[in-house]
Known about the structure:
By secondary structure, this protein is mainly α.
Amino acid sequence: LISAYMDNARSSLIPALGQFYQYNYEISGRILVCGQLTALFCTALLLPATNRFSLRTIGLFACLVCLSVCVSVLLVHSVAGLTVWGALVGGGISIMGSLSSIYADRSADEKFKTRAMSACHATYGLASFGAPIFASAILLQPEHWRNIYLFLIPLIILLAIFCNFYAPTESAKNSGLEKQEIKLDFSQSLSVIVMIFYVGAEVLTAMWLTTWFVSNGETLQNGSLATAIFFAIMTVTRMLCSLISSDRWIMPVIWFSLISSLLFFVVGRLTGNFWLIPMMGLLGPFFPLFVTSTSKRFPRKGRVILIWMLTAMQGLLAFMNLFTGFLAQTFGMPIAFWLPAFLLTICIVLLLVSKKFEREGLSTSPI
């Protein structure tokens, strides 16, 4: 909940602060990139960290980073300060969000793993739904934008207390968990690549949807509402996925989520019916279901594949946010906002290739 709120409050914050501090789309992209690079660094450290330290220790560290984010916002008074603060935000979001997926993957029995992962990511959608609405309400008075993050302080403190008492106290090295090697074979690597293109499509839609609405003459409140609808649909679909009791439904639901989302996006853009684009929230089932199916397909590599996914997607997002800002500044937001459809198309093609290799049982040497 905390990670999702911190992440998606930015979708309303970016266009508002652009007007408040008088900076353009390209600088918006650079601020997001600083966050993604920090996120990439932090997520890459998770595999060695989970092998050496307990999840309780890592969880408490994540709470400390997020607490630093909320306190240091008081020191931001310029674009330079906003850029440094944005880097810290990226670190907090990545550690907290990645840990929630690891907790869900580790804590659930194999039989209930699909439900646990879907429920975990439904909470992400729930907080993401509320974040732009709450942020846009505060941004009616832009000078009070820091309150968007300040109110999280008591919640983070409560989470740290809960984590101290209930999180696992043993590392993989000292527990029954197998210490997993970092290398992946071809099929495992292809699963990671599929995931990062999906995440690119989802996150770019969520992060730039409000900005795109505003660039088309809509109010910040309408743009934030569109983003909230996107996450509301994502939350509901992930909640429904937690009811799935048979693995035979996983792939049909995954295909439906990808293809229907792409169709709504393309039709909405081509017809000018912009309110169809929030239906991209139908992407919701993909992340928890694909992570679960990959974990079941490669049970001895589940944790390392998940961390590879989380790390690689941060690298792609760093580049894509910078590229989106460049395209928006150079060619206009209408051109830049086709990127989610482009990435989702690549994701669908790569998933088809992955399924073909899976049927043929292809697996090559580690890479």
